[in-house]
Amino acid sequence: MEVKDFRYYENRGITLRSTPFASLSGRCAMKPRSAGHLHVGGILVTEQPPKEIWITLAGQIDQAMVQRVFQFAANATHDQIDTVHLLVQSGGGFVSDGICLFNFLKNLPINLITYNMGNVSSMAVILYLAAKHRVATENATFMIHKTHASPNPGATASMLKEIADSLDIDNARTEAILHESLTLPEEKWVLHQHGNLTFTAKEAMDFALVHELGNFAPPPGAPLYNITPSP
User: Fold this and answer.
1) Longest dimension (CA), the chain
2) pLDDT, greater one: 204 or 158
3) Are 64 and 25 in contact (CB under 8 A)?
4) How many structural domains does the chain have?
């Protein structure tokens, strides 16, 4: 089996850290699986395929993030990973991309555990909810709000109506997921109708958003990856 040197990957836009820490990007190409070896994004990571890996994901939820997560998931399922620990740090992003990631991650044949060690807001909360088990540190926070838009100056009445209709549709999609997943008291839902609703990790446990207070703490020697944007 041929193992490429550092410059081979750098020339192809693949950032290689010291093993077992590597970086995945949307430009990584999958290589054929070799017995007793794990290739992630074309990089030889370890001699034995791990069954449990740790991932960090940060940034705006958009098309670029969707592509990065798709590539990561293809590699993880290809290498028969059982459990993925996913640390999310994001202020949110686009509704359609967040809904896509929620549906995609929720239905992967992988045991997904999501973590919040700082802040998960807006559409990032929807992504975070894709996991069956969710963890947050005690000093982490969450924020949800209604979908909003900023019309361009000079927008006509018909254009504003189209925007309003689109916002109603997006609100219905995200609200369905929130109401299915969370157990907010009625007064919190009322506040949510009129502005940002921020709560602590301990409150999130009361509302069924978080199942456990804890840390994203890979054990020594565990495979740790960062899903990075394409250069």
Assistant:
1) 64
2) 204
3) no
4) 1
At 58, which helix (H) or strand (E)? strand 52-58
9 three-class SS: helix
The answer to whether residue 15 is domain-embedded is no
- Domain with 164, as residue range(s), is 49-227
Instruction: Give the residue among 100, 34, 89, 90 at the shortest CA–CA distance from 66.
Output: 100
Question: The sheet that has 141-144: what strands, in order across it?
Answer: 119-121, 141-144, 197-200
pLDDT in tens, 173-209: 898 999 899 998 888 877 767 778 899 999 999 999 9
Amino acid at 94: F
Q: Is residue 198 part of a domain?
A: yes
The C-alpha atoms of residue 3 and residue 85 are separated, in whole angstroms, by 27
In this model, does residue 137 exceed pLDDT 50? yes
Q: What is the pLDDT at residue 24? A: 41
Which tokens is 143 given?
């924020």
Is 210 contained in some domain? yes
Q: Quick check: is 43 in a domain?
A: no
Both tokens of residue 224?
């740790």
The DSSP result for 69-122, as a single string, is: HHHHHHHHHHTT--EEEEEEEB--B-HHHHHHHHHHHHTSSSEEEEEESSEEET
Alpha-carbon span 37 to 139, nearest angstrom: 39
Give me the pLDDT at residue 25, please.
38
Determine the residue type at 147. Answer: T
CATH classification of the domain holding 219: 3.90.226.10
State the pLDDT at residue 146. 63
